[in-house]
Each structure stands twice: as structure tokens, then as C-alpha cells.
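#struct-help
A.M.: can someone run this one for me? Single chain, 330 residues.
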Amino acid sequence: MHATKHSAPWLPRFALGALAALSFLSIGVHAETWPARPVKIVVPYPPGGAVDAVTRKMAQRLTEQTGQSFFVENKPGATGTIGAVQVARSAPDGYTLLANDTTYALLPHIFRKLPFDYAQDLQPVCAYVFAPMGLVVKADGKYKTLAELLTAAKAGDNKVSYGSGGPGSTPHFASEALGMAAGAHFMHVPFKGAGEATVALLGGTVDFQMASISGVIGQVQGNKLRVLAVSGDKRLPALPGVPTFAEAGVRGFGVTNFTGLWAPKGTPPEVLARLQKEVSAAMATPDMRAYAQGIGADAGYWDTNAFRKEMGERTAFWGKVASGTGFEKQ
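D.P.: on it. C-alpha cells below:
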């Protein structure tokens, strides 16, 4: 009877305590709903390149949509692996992301040993802003058409030079892929980044550059650079007078670029889902569509599944280019 007499007041106190604890937990979870603090997007290249420019535009849009700050941090070096390692070793909480392009699919073919697990440590989240690659020359240079440049290149090995952001970069492999498709040989002049390669082209140090159109559209519109051909199966609305590589006589060359986001392995699914939702919403806005078109790109979107599939195919493609050119892993 004694136990029964005192059990009634004990139960309400326990229930109230449990409710209070659950309420506290609920408030805590709500307070940490992503993004609850600034989100860092690591760009593993110097400022001024296509990935940097597109990522900054997306960061601005995500900041506007979420009310939380998204900002870019440049960590260049080693063909993007320095920045990739930083993100791979970051807490998987959605507050440190990696931005990259098709160069990421090159990494297994240019390094004997990567400082992170290529297949596991970073997971593709989504991709957006798809830009064709273009062969660009100095506007007042001697090459006016792709045929002229290829004729000169075929006349003697290493007679025609091109600049890239370094051995194993996308412009490097894309230039070699072009040479394989056209039966031509070029001299490779590596620089520390795509921006430096463009400066060298403008200064006449190299003859051409294979670049993402979005990274050089400003110089093209300013009549400092000329595009001789673009990848893809159609001409760009921003450059209607520029032929595709197929139209210019080189078939089988369809390298296109994209900007995408990766997150550390173990990032919560709900965070990834929210990020995909926000990026997809951003790419549906007139602002981002106009921006993409203005830089000679398409405002598309790949979710995680499509992105992972595409990365697998591109990794295999670049493997064939590396093998065909005899590229020695670093």
C-alpha cells in the first residue's frame, strides 16, 4: 500500500521531466537545421578560372536563398588535390564542400597514389552550369580558323604550342584528346592555373588554349581572344558564329565541362538532400539561367545519381586519353 500511495505523484513528475528533455532535444535539433552557420566551398584552383567564377555565382545565390552565408575559399595546388584533401578530411557536416569540374575524373590517371581515397572519401552531390570547351587564340594572332592551326601543327611536331593549368589538368588532357582526334601534335606549356595560361595566351607566349568557354567569355567579348571551335553538338547562342569541332572538321571530340559539388563521406543524407534542393532551385531561376547563357554555358542540373554515373563514364574516358598519349603518372 505504501508503494501504491506514493506512485501517483511520481509518475507525473517523470512524465514532465521526459517531456522537458524531449522539448530540449527538439529545440537543439531545430537549431542545428542545416545550414545553421556559414558554409565554406573550397575551390582547389587559383581565383579567375571557370570553376572559381561559377562557384562564386552559385555561392551568392545559395546565400540569398537560405539566408546563410556561402563563401569560397581558394586552395590551389597539385591539380586540385590539395583542396580535395582538405575537404576529404573535414567534418562530414555539410559546412565544408568541394567545388570542381571534370578535372576530378582525371585524378586516378595522373597520380600514382592520391592522398585520399578517390572512390570513397568524397561523394558527388550535384552538378550544374555545363560549359563546352573551346579552342581559343589571341584575337589578333595568326590563326583565324581551326583548319589553319591544325595544318601548322601537322607540319611539324611541337610547332604549335598550348597553355594549360598544369600537367593532368582538364585543358591539358582536352588538348591531347583533340590532337588524338585530329592526328596532330602540340607542344604543352604548363602554368599554375587556367588564369595564368590565359594571361600567357594574351601575351603571345603560347598559340592556343583549350578552355571552358565560361572562363574566357569576357576576353572573347572584349575582342582579346577568338574562339575557333567549341565542343558539343550545337553552336552556342552566345557565340553563334563559332562552329562546333565537328563542323570545323574534327569529329569524335565532345569534351564538355561542368561545375559540381562534392561532400565528405558520411555527410548526413538530409543535408545532401537540402543542398541538392537548393542548387536545383537556383538553376531554375531566371538569374542563373541568364548567367549561364551569358558565359556560353547551359543551365542544367544533375542530381547525385546522375552525377555519380557521369563521373564513372568520364573517369573511363580520361583513362583512354592518358593511355593513348602515354601520360606518365606523377
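A.M.: thanks! The radius of gyration is 25 Å.
D.P.: also worth noting: DSSP finds eleven helices and ten strands in the chain.
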